[in-house]
Design brief:
About 45% of the residues lie in helices and about 20% in strands. It has eleven helices and nine strands. The N and C termini lie far apart (about 70 Å).
């Protein structure tokens, strides 16, 4: 009897052995097939361009294929849903920025949660926010602007690309931290807001360096504060918010990769290692430099730290949305 059992177990091992080896080999070979990186915006913008650069560099360092797919609609909601409902095997990811945290807030009926429904893979770039004023406003710097607002001398209009955008919440957060009030004007996109800033119809805009740097350098507007620990080499004449008297405002927009909840740790680790190599390539570093952005440190871009950032942002933006009366869609 014992001999029969032993023989049966040996036969089973022979049958299962190749399958087990094949499964282990597939994990070791990740990625063994194309990886789809979903982007929730249309092609051509800065987020899409950065996603395509990340895909290219990840392909180089892994020897695999990373393909960007633009899934647009409902402010990134459709892309989020597509990613969250995919198999958690590492072959469907989403590249986004802080705006992704706002999707569950704006679309509560979709029943999505940035922490519950995603696996943080890692960040690749932090883009500082820049406060800029119109040349017609007469505002010279942040301290004098705040002094005038507190004294009632400045009744300013801040413009952004629409309710629930990162610029909208960034402006509300800044006003809250600075202890001042202003009118928040919502446009249909950042383009019209920037046009009115240049034309002097509004006095201030708080947006990313990638948008404001060329306008400041071209003297079309005046940047007066940047959310960075030190001044940016691309904008050495622009003080930090800390220098201007609002050190607590340090909002930098993260750009990173997430996947569906439940991704295997070994796959997340391999992707994280690949990101570390990708962000060190000359092509990537040069691109980040032109955007006046910063590559996060190894600790900052790790999955664990990124997870904590998602938790922090979810709480902060949820509280802020309630305070400013942001309406769900």
């Amino acid at each position: 009897m014992k001999r029969r059992i032993a023989a049966a177990l040996a036969a089973m091992a022979l049958c299962l052995g190749p399958a087990l080896l094949q499964t282990a080999s597939a994990k070791d070979a990740f990625p063994s097939k194309p990886v789809t990186i979903i982007v929730g915006v249309a092609p051509g913008g800065s987020l899409d361009a950065l996603a395509r650069l990340v895909a290219t560099e990840l392909g180089k360092v892994t020897g695999g294929t990373f393909v960007v797919e633009n899934v647009t609609g409902a402010g990134g909601l459709l892309g989020f849903q597509r990613m969250a409902r995919s198999a958690p095997d590492g072959y469907t990811l989403m590249f986004s920025n802080q705006s992704m945290v706002l999707i569950p807030i704006l679309y509560p009926k979709a029943d999505l949660d940035i922490v519950r429904d995603t696996t943080a893979v890692g960040t690749v770039a932090n883009v500082p926010m820049v406060l800029s004023v119109s040349n017609q406003s007469g505002i010279k710097d942040l301290p004098s602007m705040l002094a005038g607002m507190r004294a009632g001398e400045h009744k300013l209009n801040f413009g952004s690309g629409g309710p629930g955008t990162t610029a909208h919440l960034a402006e509300a957060l800044f006003l809250q931290m600075a202890g001042v009030k202003a009118e928040l004007i919502q446009y249909r996109g950042s383009g019209p807001a920037i046009s009115d800033l240049i034309g002097g119809q509004i006095q201030a805009v708080l947006d990313q360096t990638v948008t404001m740097l060329p306008l400041h350098n071209g003297k079309q507007i005046k940047a007066i504060a940047v959310a960075s620990k030190t001044r940016l080499p691309q904008m050495p004449d622009v003080p930090t918010f800390a220098e201007g008297g609002v050190p607590q405002f340090d909002l930098q927009i993260w750009n990173g990769l997430v996947g569906p909840k439940g991704m295997p740790k070994d796959v997340v680790d391999k992707l994280s290692e690949a990101i570390t190599k990708a962000v060190q390539t000359p092509e990537f570093r040069e691109r980040i430099d032109t955007l006046a952005s910063r590559i996060p440190s190894a600790e900052e871009r790790s999955p664990a730290t990124f997870t904590k950032a998602l938790q922090r942002d979810q709480q902060q933006f949820s509280d802020l949305a309630k305070k400013i009366g942001l309406e769900a869609r």
